[in-house]
Amino acid sequence: MTALPALRPRSGAGVAERLARSTAATEGIGMATDDVPGWLAARTRARPARVRRIPFAELDGWSFADDTGDLRHHSGRFFSVEGLHVVRPDGDWQQPIIMQPEIGILGILAKEFDGTLHFLMQAKMEPGNPHLVQLSPTVQATRSNYTKAHGGAQVKYLEYFLHRGQVLTDVLQSEHGEWFFQKRNRNMIVEVDGDVPVDDDFRWLTLGQLGALLNQDNVVNMDARTVLASASMTHPEPRALLSDTELLSWFTGERTRLDVRARRIPLRQVSGWLRDAHSIHRADHRFFRVVAVAVEGAAREVSSWTQPLFEPVGPGVVGFAYRTFGGVPHVLVHALAEGGLLDTAELGPTVQYVPANHAHLPSVRRPPFLDLMLDAPPDRIRYAAVHSEEGGRFLNAESRYLIVETDESTTPAQPPPGYHWITPGQLNWLAGHSHYVNVQARTLLAALNTRAADLDHEHRRP
C-alpha cells in the first residue's frame, strides 16, 4: 500500500521572527557596517570600469529595425525599445518603452551564523548607477544573462536559486511601470545550511546592517531593495483604519475604476518624440530620453559591451506621508495607474514625481502632495535618502526617498479619491503577493522592514 504524503505546516515556522532578530543585529560576522562603503569603493578601484556616451551608430549588435524603427539586439534577446500608446479617461500619450518579456531572478542567499540570519550581498557594477558599484542581491540576472546569451561566464551562486535551498521568499514583482512594459522579476530569498564559498565581490550582512546602509545615498541598489521589501516581516499592529478585507476591496475597486488601455506601437510611429544621432527625446525635453553607452572593463560576466539606456530629465521625489491613528502608524498609499503595468494599477507612494516635469505648472495644478514633500520641515522627516533606480536599464535615475510625518491640515484622515491610509504591516503583507505594490513603494517598504525609517516619536531625526 502506498503511503500518503505527510502534511506540512502552511507557513514557515518562525521565519518572520528570525528575520526580526536579524533586523535587530546591527553588526554581523562578515564586515562592519561602517566598512561597507569603503569596501564598495575598493571593489570599484580593483576593477575600474568606464561608461561613456556614444551615438546610436556605435552600438555593437543593436540597430533600428527598418520596418518598425524599434531598437533591438541582433540576437533577439536581452530587451528592445519599442513604442507604447496609453489611453486614459484624462488623456492619452505615446512614448518609447522597454520590452523585456523574460522573467529574471533577483535572489539573496541567507545563512544563519551564531543564531542570526545573514544575507550574501554582492558589490555589483551597473552602467547607469552613480559611482557604478552598489550592494546588490547575490544573484541579479535576466534569463538572457543566466542562460549565457552574451557568451560570458556563469552567474555565480545561481544554482542555489534553481536547484536547492529552503525558500523564505519567492514572488513575482513588477518593475518601473512608466519605462517597462509588463516587466516582472522573481524576487527570492533562499536559505542554505552548508558551507558557501564567498567570492571577493560578496559579503554576509544582517538585515540590521542593511537597514543602516539604506540610510546612505546610493549604497543599496534597487534590486536588493525590492527583495528586502518582499520578505514577510513582523509589524506589531493589532488594528488598522481598514481591515485587510476592506483594503483589498478598496484597491480592487480602484483597479476597476481606473480605465487604462495600453498597446504597443512601432517606435517610428511614436508622436511628439524626435530622434537624432545621440538620443530619442521629446520635443519639449521633458520626462526622459533614450541614449546609448559603451561599457569597458566591467567586473561582470562580460567585461565590455554597448547598450541603450533610459535617462530621466532630472531627479525624482518619492515619498510616503505618515501619520498615526490610535497609536498605530499608517502611510498614505496611492492607487497608481502606469501604462506599463500588467494589471492597470499598483499601490504606489503618496508622491512619485520628477519635479522638473511639473515646474511650469501653477501651484493649483501641480501633483497632489508634491509640495508637501519638497517643503517638509527637517523635524518632520522620518526617513530620507537618495537612491538610484535599476542601473542596468536607466542612466542617472535618482530619486530622493522620503517618509514625512504629516497632520490633518495637510493629509486628512479622509484622503482624496485614489489614496488611502494603510499600515506598514498591511503594505508588507501585500508585497508578499504579485502586482500589488509598485517598485518605488517597495523601496520605502524596505526601509520600514529593516527599521531604516524611524517612526518613533521619541527618537526623531534632525
UniProtKB/TrEMBL annotation:
Q: Where is the dTDP-4-dehydro-6-deoxy-alpha-D-glucopyranose 2,3-dehydratase domain?
A: 34-230, 245-448
Question: Pfam families, from UniProt?
Answer: Hexose_dehydrat
Domain of life of the source: Bacteria
Q: What Gene Ontology terms describe what this protein does at the molecular function level?
A: lyase activity
Fetch the InterPro entries from UniProt.
EvaA-like, EvaA-like_sf
Where is the secretion signal located? none
Q: What is this protein called?
A: NDP-hexose 2,3-dehydratase
Q: Which organism is it from?
A: Actinomadura rudentiformis
